[in-house]
Each structure stands twice: as structure tokens, then as C-alpha cells.
Design a protein that fits this description.
3-stranded antiparallel beta sheet, mainly alpha, 11% strand
């Protein structure tokens, strides 16, 4: 049985340390970078009384307008119960409202409120200096290059169809 297992003496073990040759290295580094970025952006949102999960929904509402909860679930990577809680929070804070969808009594669309738009804009102002801190270790032009590379990785050309 042991003879059927790959030889681990030559295989790279996945880490997220610089220089890791593992095929998992990029994904692990992206995960670590995400954690760091989420912490920094969460720091910007905290004084505004929302979390990243709330902001993710506000982004969808700003980008797409009135959106049914089912589509918010898919767009944010949340689950049905999670979206219900997030939208409940946003409604309680006056940042979004649920409205009936004509022709289907069971479906509710979520819309951002004027107060939600104000908070959305305030979040961008609050995040400005923190976003600069996030890329402080990069050289001239590197933040833009990193954004370009991550955009192409996150949105491959064949996804645009």
C-alpha cells in the first residue's frame, strides 16, 4: 500500500511562504492577501457601523440596482440564510429596503436607500488612506500592475460571454 503513495521526499509541501514552489502556493498567497485586505477594509467600515458582508451587498445594489435576494446570494458567495440576515441588518440600519416583485408575491427585491448611498460613498473616503497602507510595500506602478493581474485572474476573458 505504501508503495502506491507518491514519494513525499521530492514533492513540495504547500505553504504560503515566499518562494513556495507548490501548485497550491498562488491560491494560498491569495487567501493570505485576502485576509489582510479584508482586515484593512473592515477597519475602514467599522466606524460606519457595517462589516464587509454588508458592504458586499451594497456594492451589488450600487452596481446592479434593485436585485432579488436569490441573486445577491450568488453574487456575494453567501447562502440564503446569510443574505437574509445581511439584508435584515441593512434594513434595520436604513441602508436598504425590500420591495415586492410584480408578478411574484414570494420574491423580494432589495434596493439601496439614499442613506445607503451616502454610507457607500463615505466608506470609499474612509478606505482611501487604509488602502494606501495596504500597498505601501509595493513600488511605483506596482499597485496598478497588481490590480491589472488580479482583475485578469478574477475575470478571465471567457467569463465575459
Amino acid at each position: 500500500m505504501a508503495a502506491d503513495l507518491p514519494d513525499h521526499t521530492t514533492a513540495s509541501r504547500a505553504t504560503d511562504r515566499p518562494g513556495d514552489p507548490s501548485p497550491f502556493a498562488l491560491g494560498l498567497l491569495l487567501r493570505r492577501a485576502h485576509w489582510r485586505a479584508a482586515a484593512v477594509m473592515g477597519e475602514a467600515l467599522r466606524p460606519l457601523g457595517i462589516e464587509l458582508r454588508h458592504f458586499a451587498v451594497l456594492i451589488e445594489l450600487v452596481n446592479h440596482g434593485s436585485t432579488v435576494q436569490r441573486d445577491l446570494t450568488a453574487a456575494t458567495g453567501s447562502d440564503k440564510a446569510g443574505i437574509m440576515r445581511i439584508v435584515d441588518d441593512l434594513e434595520r440600519k436604513g441602508l436598504a429596503v425590500r420591495k415586492a416583485v410584480p408578478g411574484d408575491r414570494r420574491v423580494r427585491a432589495v434596493e439601496i436607500t439614499p442613506q445607503g448611498l451616502e454610507l457607500f460613498d463615505a466608506a470609499h473616503v474612509a478606505a482611501e488612506s487604509l488602502a494606501e497602507r495596504l500597498v505601501a510595500e509595493l513600488g511605483p506602478g506596482e499597485p496598478e500592475r497588481l490590480t491589472d493581474l488580479l482583475t485578469r485572474l478574477a475575470h478571465p476573458a471567457d467569463d465575459e460571454a
